Structures are given as C-alpha cells and as structure tokens.
Amino acid sequence: MTPMTIEQLYEKLKDKDFQNTTINLFYNYYVFQYEPQQEAEIYTQLKQYQENLYRPSEHLDILILNLFDLFCDYLKSIRLGANEPPYLEDLLKQDLTEPNIVTQSLMQEAGSDEYYQFIHNRIMEHKAKNDAKRRPFVFLTGIGNMFPYLRAHVFFDCYEKFNDPDAYKIIMFYPGNCSDKQFGLFNRFAETNPYRTIKLLN
Q: What is the DSSP letter of 182?
C-alpha cells in the first residue's frame, strides 16, 4: 500500500466513522507522510481544508498546531528569575558563544513534561470551546523544523501521559518516509518507528 495523498486525507476527514473518537481500538496517533519538497503545498492545503470543514455542512473545528511555533511560545513563557528576560532570549544570546550547550538545553526542554503540558493545555483549550462544532482532530505540523531537538518517536512517547484517546485523534504531518520498521525524516535521518502510530495509507 502507498501513502495517502492529501486529497484522500480530506475525504478521510469527512468520514463520520473516522471522526468518531470512541472507536479508536487502542491508538489515536496517526501519521501522514509526504515528500519534504511538498511542505509549502501541504501547509496551504491544510489551511484550506480547515476552512472547508469549519463550514456548516461539516461543523468540524480542526486545531492545527505547529510544534516549532509552540516550542518558541513555551520558551518565551519561561523566566529564570522575576526580573530576567524570557528564556528564549537568553538562549539566543548564548548561541553566539556556546552553540553546543544551547543545543543540549533545547533538546532537554523539548523532552520536558512542561513542554508537553504546554501542548496539552492548548489542545484542552480548543476542546473546551462551547459551541456546536465538533473537534475530533488535532493536526501537528513543524516536526521537521524541530530537528534535531525533537524527533517524532520522542514526541509520541513523551505525550503519552497527557494523551486522551477518547477525546481526539492526533495526525502528525511527517516530511519523509515511513516504513514498517522505521521513519526517515527528510528521507535521510532514520529514527525509531513509534509503535503506537497508525500510518495513513490509501
């Protein structure tokens, strides 16, 4: 079987059975793979699908989260002291003199419970909206931008303690290839295949 196309994904999202989060079996992690050079096109399509599915005919409100943007927001929210600047500003200054230490710090923060709690809070705020829309899907983009600080399998493992499979389905958009044994970010950098994920195939 071959990877699902972006058009096939749109039809899948409209499927009422797929929208049902109470029949997940075990896992609610999905991966949509695409060629890295398609990234701008994919992002444009996702925004269009988000708008289309929000219309009264579908009543779906899809949350799109960019992991890199969220990471920057998270780092801006950290202050090492009451009168200190945001942690992100401090790291940017350090990067000019100690880039290796900064890389290690970023990898540590990208694997911290606090970062995943930050992500979870955004999802819960979205789910808590009080209107007639249905919110079964969370799209995750930006995993390529997070390299080398965060890999897909690390995200899925670290988020597990916050995950609620009965509340939503997470679809990660992955720029690279996915086989039965491993993932390959940008078709180059091999990583562990997250066993809890379901690859979206046609």
A: E
Contacts of 14 (CB under 8 A, 6+ apart): 53, 58
Q: Output the CA torsion sign for 115, 119, 120, 122.
A: positive
The residue among 119, 115, 121 whose CA lies nearest residue 88 is 115
List Cβ neighbours of 34 (8 Å cut-off, separation of 6 or more).
3, 6, 42, 173, 174, 175
Tell me how crowded residue 23 is: count the other CB atoms within 10 A of its CB: 8
DSSP-assigned letter for residue 95: T
Whether the predicted pLDDT of 195 surpasses 90 = no
Q: What is the pLDDT of residues 7-18, one digit of tens each?
A: 999 999 999 999
Q: Phi, psi (5° rounding) for residue 33?
A: -100, 150
**pTM, 2 dp:** 0.91
Report how far residue 22's alpha carbon sits from residue 18's, in angstroms, rounded to the nearest whole number. 10
**Domains, the chain, with CATH or none:** 6-68+113-199 (3.40.50)
